[in-house]
Design goal:
Strands 2-1-8-7-4-3 form a 6-stranded mixed beta sheet. The protein is built from 10 helices and 8 strands. By secondary structure, it is of the alpha/beta class.
């Protein structure tokens, strides 16, 4: 759902801005059928759609696909600014939880941690470091907050109205512009915009393979680690020996502590006979494993 729409301080509201605000309150950055002129044109960096029926069909499919595949898909509007009597600019954001981090919510619930999402810097190369994994969990144990990257896309839309109906909808996506300028260097940020374009902006009638190839060429090409045969940059592998041992120690302490708290027996053997079910089983079942002996494999699969 969209957050409450904001008009920038100092801007005079207009009938066009009021109309756009009402139309977007339905929870999408695409306009509803009643807002469209028959000859409306939607244009973005990668596609153009002409006509109200084609616009509505694409908007319906994009919203449905995003809700089904980018879970939990959520949108928000940070600014709504009248440019003149007929044009309205909107800054919006779409976000979802990365599928690769699906293990995080059940683990956080088990340990009583909060999850805090942060945005990636698209201009910084993603470097894998074993020590970062240890630092991540060490900080979470200390603060009870697990900080994880968000999957998000931000953009700008300009709606042009005539006689109370939208005749033009121009959209630009920040990360596409960043890629066009050669400044998109973060692999995960590049994959986020590629996923969004593939799921929520593929035009009707386009072949999925051709569209995917166009997306790769536009936003993934040249990004370190983003190619099919590219390896993500990493640091000295010897760092992994120490960090992996530290991570195992941190994880063991966290699980043992949570077992005592959950079972109400913090002073007894955490995984002894009797008492409440082994909390390791809960973690494994949430992630997909079925037996507590698979716990070590669950941990190894987290990353």
């Amino acid at each position: 759902m969209l957050s409450p729409l904001l008009v920038s301080v100092g801007c005079v509201d207009t009938p066009a801005a009021a109309n756009v605000r009402a139309w977007l309150s339905a929870g999408t950055t695409m306009l509803p059928p009643e807002a469209l002129d028959d000859k409306v044109i939607f244009s973005s960096e990668m596609s153009t759609i002409r006509g109200a029926s084609a616009y509505s069909a694409a908007a319906t499919r994009w919203d449905a696909d995003a809700a089904a595949l980018l879970k939990p898909y959520r949108t928000s509007v940070s600014r709504l600014v009248p440019l003149d009597g007929q044009r309205v600019a909107v800054r919006w954001r779409a976000a979802w939880d990365p599928a690769s981090l699906a293990w995080a919510p059940p683990l956080a619930r088990l340990l009583g941690w909060e999850i805090e999402r942060f945005d990636l810097d698209p201009e910084v190369v993603s470097n894998f470091r074993w020590m970062a994994i240890f630092e991540l969990f060490a900080a979470a144990l200390r603060t009870r907050v697990l900080r994880l990257p968000a999957a998000s896309v931000e953009g700008r839309a300009v709606y042009c109205l005539e006689e109370g109906r939208c005749v033009a909808h121009e959209e630009s996506l920040d990360l596409v512009r960043t890629a066009d300028s050669g400044r998109l260097r973060n692999r995960r940020a590049a994959e986020n915009i590629a996923e969004f374009l593939d799921v929520a902006r593929r035009p009707d009638g386009s072949e999925p393979e051709e569209w995917a190839a166009a997306v790769r060429a536009r936003v993934l090409s040249g990004v370190p680690g983003a190619g099919a045969l590219h390896l993500e940059p990493s640091e000295d592998p010897s760092e992994g020996v120490f960090a992996l041992g530290c991570f195992a120690l941190v994880a063991a302490c966290a699980v043992r502590l949570s077992a005592g708290v959950i079972g109400g027996e913090a002073t007894t053997e955490a995984f002894g006979e009797g008492g409440d079910p082994d909390p390791r089983v809960a973690v494994c079942e949430e992630i997909g494993a079925r037996r507590s002996v698979d716990f070590s494999q669950c941990v190894s699969d987290l990353f």
